[in-house]
Amino acid sequence: MTLQGPRVNGPRVQGPRLLLLLLWLPLLSGQLRYAVEEERPRGAVVGDVAADLGLDPGLLASRGARLTSGSGRRFLALDVARGLLVVAERLDREALCEPSPSSSSPCLLGLELVLERPVEVHALEVELRDLNDHPPRFPRPEYRLEVSESALPGARFPIEGARDPDLGANTVRGYRLRPSQPFGLDLRDFEQRGGSSSNSALLELVLLQPLDREQAAQLHLELTAFDGGHPPRSAVAQIFVRVLDTNDNAPAFERGTYAATLLENAIPGTLVARVNASDADEGANGEIEYSFSSYTPPEVRRLFNVDPVSGEVTVNGTLDYEEASSYEIYVQATDRGPVPMAGHCKVLVTVLDANDNAPEVALTSLYSPVSEDAPPGTVVALISVTDRDSGPNGQVTLSISSELPFRLNAFKNSYTLVTQQPLDRERTSSYNITITATDAGVPPLSSHKMVLVDISDLNDNPPRFEEPTYSVYLPENNVPGVALCTAKATDPDANENALISYSLLNGEIQGLPVAAFVSIKSDTGDLYAVRSFDYEKLREFQVVVQAQDSGVPPLSSTATVHIYVVDQNDHAPQILYPTSGNASVAVEMIPRSAHAGYLVTKIIAIDADSGQNAWLFFHLAHASAPGFFSIEVHSGEVRTIRKLGEDSATTFNLTIVVRDNGEPALSSSVSIYVAVVDRISQIIPNTRRHIRSSRSYSEITLYLIVALSSVSFIFLLTVVVLAVIKCHKDNLHGKTYCGGFCGTPRERYPVEMYKQSNDHLDATMPPGLNAQPHFVEVRGNGSLSKTYCYKACLTAGSGSDSFMFYNTGIPAGIHPGAVLPERHLTGQSGQSSQNLIVFKSEPITPNEPKPPNPDWRYSASLRAGMQGAVHMDEAGALRVGPGPEQQWPTVSSATTEPEAGEVSPPVGAGVNSNSWTFKYGPGNSKQPGPESKKQTQVSFLLR
């Protein structure tokens, strides 16, 4: 590599280009010249341009460094990252460089390195060094000669030598002829015969010995050509010599080589040259006919023609300087002797360039849009121009309209389009510039190139979201990282002014920052869930997304994203009652006299999900004796299908499955042991023991269960009888537990009362009727329903099914004066379940009822029924699932305050353990009871 100044005397610098080069000498910092061998692989390093020019490789990309060349294809490229000149395409010296008359002329590629900010141009030259990549090649694989036997030793027979496109030592260096007799080789340098290259040497066969046709009528020779490469390459041609008789003088040309010059636009028929040959023979042996030699290429035969009589060589086709600048025509003169003899010459034709190619304009770089505040002199585009013609025909100038606020600055074959006036986007938002390229030929040729330059605006528009609010519905239990939505905003500005970044505004959700719940992708506005959401903990929240552009100053806008967590069926139903553990089952008892439809128990279950995922369906999955029991699919009530007989089994095992309505559905199951007893007071068996089939129990165990149940039943029956007697005595003394009347005696309400709306029905008692009230039990069977306290009384000995029902308690949190809504409840008297229909609610004046039996307690069955579904806290509050809190007397208050009231759990077979009987006496001054609350008179109809 050599570093030198601009080369003005090289073989490729012409006068017009030299003038342009001198005009740009102030911008040139030197000329680099590199050498590279042909056929180097792609990416091979030619030279370190950055180091040789003293440039920082890290700044080349920012300065827009690039290479330009006059040719359309780019064989070399600039590695901007490292500042290296590397091979981009296959380098073939023989294809890139025209054959030179002198083998010492180098093959050079001219390049220009263009830098911006500031603009710098550096000239580069790359010399392609030859490799021995081509073997010698003969024009044809065999030659056929006819030689008269009268030919004397020393006679010469020209043969076209082998050609090798390589240069120097890699070209043809010698020949070998086998056998060496009777012909030999004579290699005359082409310069002695008007040529200048040994690669185009004229090879001649020299007759060394006289020929004798009678001994050998035909000779076979083998000619080998080899080059001087390492290792050498060679080619072989076969020579067949036919020995002729007599005619011993061949035609001879005046000159061995003729030279001619033609314009490339020469029309067919144009005379190229006239060759002349003579023959010393007489007669037919001296008559000459001209023709192309046998080894003249087909392309030459197509473009040129030889007159056989006059020897005139004329144009026969269309010449193109850009395809070939010279041609070699081989002409032979043949006599008409019995054995024709021929003489040979060569015509060298040089083609001159004509202005037949219009300039070609290429847009190298375009910096559009241009800011409207760009100062004059701002570079808008880089333009290169080429013309396939040479000389003045290849000199090109560019021009644009003078009415545009732009101008062109020239540098060799490159131009820069710059601004020359202030731009105003409000007046013109874009310019369609027509660039005209005109060469200096006669007549001149021109071409046009359209360049569209847009004018950019300042940052005067904030980003705008497609929607002011977004709603996202996200199923719970999502995978962290799931995409929620895309809050897309647009900005009518351009470039950085339209580059939008998204972020979440600071805020808190359940005391945690917004970033703990969602994240946003800053470049796209995609929102992602950071965590997995639980519908039961967080059902909805909102975040504020901000879109901000990258202008100066930046502008922004916001949008609100509402995220709704959608419930999924992720909780199986939870059975609150009856409950069973790993080592126990729930136990229910029914009397053997139970009729069809008898209520055995009621399954109480909850589901933490919501909507249809919390809809529960009950199913009897297994029964030890099918056909005896059924379960209501919605309420969970287990009832008998038919009446039990004397021969029926004494125990049944039931498996109840509770399934929700989710997709897929989840379920839970409970096992129930149903014991058939003769009396309701039979003792409940130990639920901790493993429940086996009824046949596995011994008779002793069965008798024990029956005995315990009987004792319990007798005890409870005694308590009930005593309570009824006590109430009856109180009624005889004029005391009542109800303020007002309890019901109508032995008269049913007319049918019209049932047809009226519940909001307008009321029950009245004829004036003067003195009714004696009695207590009846009222039980609520709703699953997790709100629990209320009621008093009901009937007239003594009344057979009517109409009675009065009093609401003596209100839900926790409701003040005493509030008006409670009407409700539909279930009441039970004895062992039958009846429907209670609310007719109308109206306030009444409370009276003081007689205190009930204070000797009540919580039994073991009461505690078993309360497990999971009902529990008592220390304050005496009875809690039923998630329902409202009710205030009931506790065990301690019952024992110390006889006037507090009575709570009786359900006992006996077939009684639902979730049903309760509440009987209240007058309130205690130490413990506020139901009497301190405002009583409400509620009328019910018992069906």
Automatic annotation (TrEMBL):
Topological type in the membrane: Single-pass type I membrane protein
Official protein name in the record: Protocadherin alpha subfamily C, 2
Subcellular location: Cell membrane
Pfam families: Cadherin, Cadherin_2, Cadherin_C_2, Cadherin_tail
UniProt record, GO biological process: homophilic cell adhesion via plasma membrane adhesion molecules
Residues in Cadherin domain copies: 139-253, 254-361, 370-465, 466-575, 590-687
Calcium keyword on record: yes
PANTHER family from the UniProt entry: CADHERIN-87A, PROTOCADHERIN ALPHA-C2
SMART domains (alphabetical): CA
Stretches for region Disordered: 878-943
Recorded GO MF terms: calcium ion binding
Organism: Anolis carolinensis
Transmembrane feature ranges: 700-725
